[in-house]
Amino acid sequence: MDGEEAKPADGTLRLETLRARGRTNTAFDFDATWRSIQPDDVLALIYTSGRTGPSKGVEITHADVLAQAAGVAQVLDFRFGDRTTSYLPSAHVVDCFTCLYAQAISGVQVTVVSESRASRTRPSGGCRGGVGDRPQTYAPASGGQAGR
Questions:
Q1: Per-position DSSP letters for 37-101, written without gaps between them
Q2: What is the DSSP string of 6-31?
Q3: pLDDT tens-digit profile of 90-126?
Q4: Which helix (H) or strand (E) holds 138?
Q5: Distances (CA, A) of 19 to 5, 15, 43, 66
Q6: Is residue 145 within 8 Å of 80, Cβ to Cβ?
Q7: How many Å apart are CA 114 and CA 131, to the nearest integer?
Q8: What is the pLDDT of residue 11?
Q9: Averaged pLDDT for residues 35-55
Q10: Residue 114 within any structural domain of the chain
Q11: Within a domain: residue 93?
């Protein structure tokens, strides 16, 4: 592709196009958008490591995460106001669930350990987040519990 610009796949937008649409679209209806989300809509793509072949994207739906939350709640019972620490890379599926989705579903407070602090305790690096050596804390946005 020397000198050629890659053509985006059908159904995709270039970042510049998305930004331009965002600046010009002042009629975006957030409430209607979030209410239109269905259980089988894709929430996230988790990529496999590629150790046994090419890396693959695995679609995780909203229903998948809610089912996982219900199962985990039987063992760990996440509740509003509980606290957890994020020390894995943010792209790791365990960190995504326990420190992003559980927070959104149950209102769990998350403290993110900075990469420099995490690397002192394990040689493989750390999670993205935090400022210098100061952990970052994310508190729940509301007092309610979604999904319970």
A1: --TTSEEEEEE---TTSS--EEEEEHHHHHHHHHHHHHHT---TT-EEEE-S-TTSHHHHIIIII
A2: PPPPTT---HHHHHHHHHH-----HH
A3: 777 888 888 888 888 888 888 888 765 545 544 333 3
A4: strand 136-138
A5: 19, 6, 21, 31
A6: yes
A7: 6
A8: 79
A9: 88
A10: yes
A11: yes
In a domain, residue 19? The reply is yes
CB 102 within 8 A of CB 72: yes
| Count: domains in the chain | 1
Q: Do residues 22 and 40 lie in contact, with contact meaning Cβ atoms separated by under 8 Å? A: no
Domain of residue 103: give its range: 15-138
- The percent of residues above 90 in pLDDT, for the chain, comes to 10
CA distance 116 to 122: 10
Which H or E run includes 119?
Answer: helix 115-121
SS3 129: coil
DSSP state of 144: -
For 54-96, write each residue's pLDDT tens digit.
888 889 999 999 998 888 888 887 788 888 888 888 777 888 8
Q: Is residue 5 part of a domain?
A: no
Global pTM value: 0.56
pLDDT for the residue numbered 116: 56
